[in-house]
Amino acid sequence: MKKKRSAEGPEAEPQKTEVKNSRVERNRVNQLPTLPRRSLNLVLCDKANSSSKAKTFFGVIQRIYVSFASSPQRWAILKDNVEGFTLKQLSQTRWESRVESVKPLRYHAPKIRDALVILANSTTEAMAKSEAKSLVTHELENFEFLFCVCIWYNLLFAVNSVSKLLQSEDMDIEVAIKQLKGLVTDFERNRFEQFKVYETNFDFLFNLKKSSDESLKTGCENLESFLKHGGASDIDGRELFMELKVLKVGLPNEVNKPIEVLNYLKHMEDCFPNSWIAYRILLTIPVTVASGERSFSKLKQIKNYLRSTMSQERLNGLAMLSIENDFAAKQDYSSLIDLFASKNARRAMFK
């Protein structure tokens, strides 16, 4: 039996399209909007993929994970050196969840570096040894990579927080719009305004040898007014200008960075007092609050429920020893014990 040919032919296709468009137009209000969470993820993904530095950064994150995840023995090295955190593989679909992959490096980069050093020294595989040494030397000891870790963690953390809110069952469109606007405002707002202020006032000290006399004079005058408080300033702008003119000519060729200039000034005694103060202020400006955060973490470990009755003085002393453990380890305990004994010796002489 032959099949009955459909009455519809090529001429029916335009009619179907017209009917479909009519229905879409009538029910335009009822159409579901594009999911904001998914759009947020796609925007982040596209922006990151358009940057070669972002691709390189996340490629390094994945390389670090693969270096430890390749075998149970390597993973054991990581767990022995990094407690409470573990490396996670990069998500290829949910970009905002990559914050969990960046988080261990944000808070435990030195420990992960130490684990890579141990891996490089203990493994017998040539590829693994070369990869571990390369990650330590060219990535985890690279300022640009560590700076990217901080930037990307803050960015992904903000996006991930908003993304989780958008997934809640009782989320309405008004709240979703406010959250997305707040996120955009947070990105658009300059979160490094204070760093720009520091750059404006201390920029000439970073490249002293390349600075012209005109820029040096302007920089010294601006720095004097920036450091002025209550009519008094920490430096004299005119004297600082004269000092830097002499210092710029006399600096050795190998001295370029601000820390190297400061170390050079140490050996010059009091020849450049204003320069000494200016470079000390520059190099003591805190870039992050990581040290403060680690201090609070140490306090939680020191004052636990077994030491709940500890006095404030003893707590301060133990916290200082724990925070400055590198300095404390270099001290001569014998001389410290003798000094403590001499200060607490009884004054009364018994016969």
UniProtKB/TrEMBL annotation:
The protein, known as: Uncharacterized protein
Entry superkingdom: Eukaryota
Annotated organism of origin: Rhododendron molle (Chinese azalea)
